[in-house]
Amino acid sequence: MKRGFGIIILFFLFTIPLTLLVSGQSKYPFDYEQLSEDERLVIRFSHVVGEDTPKGMAARKFAELLKERSNGYIEVQVFSNGTLYKDGEEMNALSRGDVQVIAPAISKLTEYVPEISVYDLPYAFHSLEEVHTFTEGVAGQKLTERLREFNLYALGIWDSGFKQMSNRLRPIQKLEDLKNLSMRIMPSDILAEQFSILGAYPKEYDFNAVFHELQKGSFDGQENTLTNITSKNFYSLQDYLTISNHGYLGYFVLFNLDFWNSLDEDVKQLITDTYLEVQEWEWELTEKLNENTLQEIEQCQCIELHHLSDEDKILWEEKFEPLYDYYIEKYGDELIKELPKFKSKT
Ligand code: SIN
């Protein structure tokens, strides 16, 4: 009888403070910063881009808000610029539990869930809103389920924006201009095919190796978002930049599923609510940062800038149509038919 009573007291001693803490009603504020790492909830978050990119800033905001809202109990430690793990290492680190969250570019998940390359299809999306609608709908749900098979829990999607093309040899205005250029890509068969059908040579390199390999002349050009191009200084090694907006680059924010399942329900709720708020903020931030970056590039006159005419845009989009058949042959039409461009026709 006495033992049972003791257990009940212990239960309340441990659960009530956490419940009050995450609901923000703590009567006696508890300074978790005075506790050791073992007593706090430490979440390691690794990513490969710069601090002042949309992903870098969102990761820091996520950490700040969680710390504030949990009175320091939840500590998200953010490791940027691939300082902890690089492309190709992040996923293993997450599955080993060495880090608890990563936000890899979606193309880098194609090794696990190949059909996720639907996001890589050129001109699959014409606005970031379209990407969000697609992700929040049936396709996003199916992909989230597939990621669970790899012990990954997807909280949502962050944008980097639309990709542009840069190279060191000639202006790219017409698609023919890409012929024989070697172009760095992320690992994705759709991205490889996107350049192969134009007679260009796709070459896979890790993000953190791109600057160095451009310096060595290992390839002629690359595709990326403006914030990635400038934050990593790729444009200082490239002579021509075409604003093509031909493909989407974004991230699935992934927790190790076992780690996620081990969390208290109240903590999960706080993380989810905070994440969703940061996601909205990140989406707006991405638009602004890419717009500001474009203005800076226009003003700096440090790289020859080209824009596609409306006519060119139509030709580029048409040229990539065979890639959709290629995708369907390999992965079926389950996801592709959810793309806004097809949905609006049904
Ligand atoms: C990233 O934005 O995380 C990297 C994208 C790339 O590898 O080009």
Question: In words, what does this structure look like?
Answer:
- With 346 residues, the chain is an alpha/beta fold.
- It has two domains: 6-113 and 127-159 and 250-284, Bacterial extracellular solute-binding protein, family 7 (D-Maltodextrin-Binding Protein, domain 2, 3-Layer(aba) Sandwich), CATH 3.40.190; 164-248 and 292-343, Bacterial extracellular solute-binding protein, family 7 (D-Maltodextrin-Binding Protein, domain 2).
- It is 44% helix and 17% strand.
- The protein is built from 13 helices and eleven strands.
- It has helices at 2-22, 54-69, 90-96, 128-136, 138-148, 189-196, 210-216, 226-231, 257-262, 265-300, 310-319, 321-331, 340-343, and strands spanning 41-46, 74-79, 101-102, 152-162, 164-167, 182-185, 201-204, 221-224, 240-243, 248-256, 304-307.
- The strands form two sheets. The chain has a six-stranded mixed beta sheet. Strands 2-1-3-10-4 form a five-stranded mixed beta sheet, sandwiched between helices.
- Helix 2 (54-69) runs antiparallel to helix 10 (265-300).
- The radius of gyration is 22 Å and the shape is globular.
- The N and C termini lie far apart (67 Å).
- The relative contact order is 0.16.
- Mean pLDDT is 91; it is low at 5-28.
- The structure holds succinic acid.
- Residues 48-49, 105, 160, 186, 207, 224, 228 line the site of succinic acid.
Summarize the structure.
By secondary structure, the chain is of the alpha/beta class. It is built from 13 helices and 11 strands.
